[in-house]
Amino acid sequence: MAARSYDPAELFVAARGGDRGALARLLSVVERGGDDARVVARLASPHLGNAYVVGITGAPGAGKSTLTSALIGELRKRGARVGVLAIDPSSPYTGGAILGDRVRMQEHTHDERVYIRSMATRGHLGGLALATSEAVRVLDATGHDWVIIETVGVGQVEVEIAGKADTTVVVVNPGWGDAVQANKAGLLEIADVFAINKADRDGVEATRRDLNAMIELTEFAVNEWTPTITTTVATTSSGVEELLDAIVAHQANATTSGDLERRRETRRREELREIVERRLELRARELCSGATWDDLESRVITGALDPWAAADEMLRGISA
After folding, report:
1. Could you tell me which residues come within 8 angstroms of residue 213 by beta carbon, excluding any fewer than 6 positions away?
2. pLDDT, tens digit (0-9, with 9 covering 90-100), for 183-227
3. How far apart, in whole angstroms, are the C-alpha atoms of residue 246 and residue 155?
4. Closest C-alpha to 176, from 201, 147, 151, 139
5. Three-state DSSP class for residue 304
6. Of the candidates 121, 185, 134, which has an alpha carbon nearest to the alpha carbon of residue 164?
7. pLDDT digits (tens, 9 = 90+) for 279-305
């Protein structure tokens, strides 16, 4: 048996050819970061733009993972190749993903045209793994038609998902809050489609009324997309076909209006900014010796030095 390759270029070619093991190792390279991850990014760049990215977010217990699994099934019925990134909280001990959302998607495990990956947030407050953007690029470049990002539920909707997805689906449940709480969560700022999941419970129409009232109080520009409300029972896949139809309708509207390209341009700009920030921090740590860095950090913690002055000192070598 030939030894497994860990060369990023060889892994990329193999993953493009459908080797799932190579794809898994390629995503591990991206998660680790470093020079090999930069090689992967360069290799992926010429092959991007074919995957449509859907974000699934909502509060804990809303049924996001079960709904994602049902959505995978509907996409497969339509012949699509699907990649899924299930973003989990990190273990405080290993830094690895601990919820294992893939457990809820086991029915797709043996489908060669579905690839599901759990990724750890590693303490990132926005609910998305730092490597999410690069992982999406890898799934896009390796021939997936759709990429679904299912976010951590942290008690509030993670606004950051809107910057990573072409369409954002916000999952709520019957009896979920009133319009005031909804506005506090900033739902309308990120939701393209609402899915009232667990719609076999009481309170569906009241929740629909709350959402509709919130939408009606919001001013939308002419021809601007107005969020769609769907109802689903993920455990039975009821309403999931209509949910996918709503996502496809938003895709068509965003494409025609130019909003999709604007979103993707903004995403690329933000990805560049994130990379620059990360590299500046790494460079600052290289130039500012460990002892000096620790001393500045300690002085900020004790209040002896303000953080702006400390940052200036840490970055002094870069600007010199």
Report:
1. 179
2. 545 667 789 999 999 999 999 999 999 888 888 888 888 888 999
3. 25
4. 201
5. coil
6. 134
7. 888 888 888 888 899 999 999 999 999
pTM metric for this prediction = 0.85
Backbone φ and ψ of 231, nearest 5°:
-120, 140
Residue with tokens 């606004």: 159
Q: What is the mean pLDDT of residues 251-275?
A: 92
Q: How far apart are CA 14 and CA 218, in angstroms?
A: 48
Those residues whose C-beta lies under 8 Å from the C-beta of residue 221, and which sit 6 or more positions away, are none
Q: What angle do CA 162, 80, 73 make, to 5 degrees?
A: 80
Alpha-carbon distance of 133 to 161, in angstroms, equals 11
Distances (CA, A) of 24 to 17, 21, 31, 142, 174: 13, 5, 11, 12, 37
CB atoms near residue 288 (< 10 Å)? 20
Contact partners, residue 256, CB within 8 Å, separation at least 6:
none
pLDDT at 180: 42
**Backbone phi and psi for residue 305, each to the nearest 5 degrees, phi listed first:** -145, 140
Find, among 268, 282, 61, 299, the residue nearest to 176 by Cα. Answer: 61
Backbone φ, ψ for residue 16 (5° rounding): -65, -25
Alpha-carbon distance 300 to 286, whole Å?
20
Ordered DSSP codes for 52-96: EEEEEEESTTS-HHHHHHHHHHHHHHTT--EEEEEEEPBPTTT-S
| ∠ CA 165-167-173, rounded to 5° | 110
Nearest CA to 184 among 215, 206, 156? Answer: 156
